[in-house]
Amino acid sequence: MKGYLKRDDDFEERRKKLANLSDEELKNRFWQLAEQVVEPLLKMAKENTTPSIERSVLLRMGFSTLEVRPLVEGAIERNLIGKGVGHIVYRVAKEKGISIREAGEKLIAGDYWDLALEIFKGGR
């Protein structure tokens, strides 16, 4: 095996910490470590979004591919994308007492963006 690096096997040394744990304790340790690995991923998913994700949400809300572009671009231009474009449409609809569809159409036409800014930047 010329050319290969030899790895020092320290399995027995590392195993000593776990050797006296019961199956239940090993299981709990596994899940504790798994949570540590996944926690940053969950945090990132909760705190971040992308235009692609926002388009997907809007499509599921019933908007067409042609309609989602100006909604996402409008949110990006106003630094509101982090609030969620579907959430913006929903909050505008709720505030104005209109349907989600109507709110989306108004936002596409350029209306209600000041209201959206007020809601999300003004702490409403």
TrEMBL record:
GO molecular function: catalytic activity; cobalamin binding
Pfam families the record matches: OAM_alpha
Membrane-spanning ranges: none
Highest taxon listed in the record's lineage: Bacteria
Family matches, as InterPro entries: Cbl-dep_enz_cat, Lys-AminoMut_A
SUPFAM superfamilies xref list: Cobalamin (vitamin B12)-dependent enzymes
D-Lysine 5,6-aminomutase alpha subunit domain mapped to chain residues: 6-120
Name of the featured protein: D-Lysine 5,6-aminomutase alpha subunit domain-containing protein
Organism: Fusobacterium periodonticum ATCC 33693
Lineage: Bacteria, Fusobacteriati, Fusobacteriota, Fusobacteriia, Fusobacteriales
